[in-house]
Amino acid sequence: MRHSIRFYLGERLVSLNDVAPDQTLLDWLRHEGRTGTKEGCNEGDCGACTVIVARLRQNRVILKAVNACIQLLPMLDGAVLFTIEDIGSAAALHPVQEAMVSLNGTQCGFCTPGFVMSMVAYRNAEQRPNDDAAIDSALSGNLCRCTGYAPIVRAMKQALAAPDSAFEETLSGLVPRLEALEDHADVVIQTATGTVFLPGTADALAQYLLDYPDTLIVAGATDVGLWVTKAIRPLPRVAFIGQCRELMRLEHREDGLHIGAAITYDAAREALSAHLPDFGALVGRIGSTPIRNSATLCGNIANGSPIGDGPPALIAAGAMLHLRYGSEKRVIPLERYFLGYGRQDRRPGEFVEAVHIPPLAKGTFYRSYKISKRFDQDISAVLAAFAICVDETGHVVEARLAFGGMAATPCRAPRAEAVLTGASWNEATLEAARLALAEDFTPLSDMRASAWYRQTVAANLLTRFYEESRGETIRLARAGGLLHA
Known about the structure:
Elements: E1 5-9, E2 12-16, H1 25-31, E3 50-57, E4 60-67, E5 80-82, H2 84-87, H3 95-102, H4 112-123, H5 132-138, H6 149-160, H7 166-171, H8 174-181, E6 187-190, E7 195-198, H9 202-211, E8 216-218, H10 224-229, E9 237-240, E10 250-253, E11 256-260, H11 265-275, H12 277-283, H13 289-294, H14 297-302, H15 310-316, E12 320-325, E13 328-333, E14 338-340, E15 343-344, E16 351-357, E17 364-371, E18 382-390, E19 396-404, E20 411-412, H16 414-420, H17 427-440, H18 451-469, H19 472-479
Parallel strand pairs: 1-5, 7-9, 8-9
Antiparallel strand pairs: 1-2, 3-4, 3-5, 6-7, 10-11, 11-16, 12-13, 12-16, 14-15, 17-18, 18-19, 19-20
Helix pairs in contact: 3-6, 11-12, 16-17, 17-18
């Protein structure tokens, strides 16, 4: 067991044994004199505080841009952290910095350090297409208040074509440093304001939660970070699980896709795209690149938000939730986890271990739809996900209609599903299902949408699903052997 967190800040090894669970990385950096990292929104939206975190993944150094304002300092254990001060110098600018200067991408300059860090991370990504759409996605978490995006994108294109700099040449030397930090020890730090626990194993986490069932579990902190920066909420005892080995498993199994509780949206996206292409596309609209680099699929489930984007899409796909309490494990359908607003089927000391997504039944047509005021980086007004299986006679064998934003929890639409099941998949059945949705939900009006809008758009999304499925359900039925040619 260790009683300190250890990470590299650029070239310097840092060891801290007095770290409060609610201390943000941004505050620590600025107290350390790393003032190039700016505080803007302090909620992970503007990107002025973007830094790069490097870790070993399958014996390779992977760089990820993250928001320092909602990254809690204990989460840095075992990593190498880079800020704008590490990227280049006045005597030898990094190619990204050179491009920003030469192409006038700096504007007022306040957001520039965050942009540079996101751009450097993208330049060192495994896949880095030199096109506007991919660059826009990579920079989706950085806002320019001077509206100077065009020269910034041009700078990114120029930097992608530049040769390696001194910064890139040092990255291969990080492997032994990162290996030396990977001792997989349990870490416990007790301070005057709270206790930090970093489990080395899932067994250690399970035992700790039995001993301290009131412990808050944090994976990516993209939600909990706002408790600290906006609600000024104390965090007396926190278990940080983001680097727990067993919880970082992402496995393609014969019975489906198994995603551990510490797997981020970014890490899961490729596998989700192969397993459920429409859900994979949806992931691209969940937050920004730095948010997806930190936020976890299971964390989105565990916090039980009625407007989380992941749960409805998973519920429609028949996902199963793996829970653990000590040595006791149980598996439940995901929709049964959500009991009511702010209430989940998880007793004190129990934690989400993984989510499992089975293969879609042969002949199943699946779609997910996100409705929000902005296309990118916005909370959903309504998230709808539908899966329907039609047999050789054109009748619905199974229907799963799941929604977020329509009730106090992410949930299915049982009356509409009952109307569809066993009926012919035609316009008359569709209309009956649309009417049944009004009996399934009584949504609220709030800043994102009125109750009327939510009810109307939910029914209209079912119509869109029907139109998109016409012909496709027949093709799938044939491919699945459900329909004889």
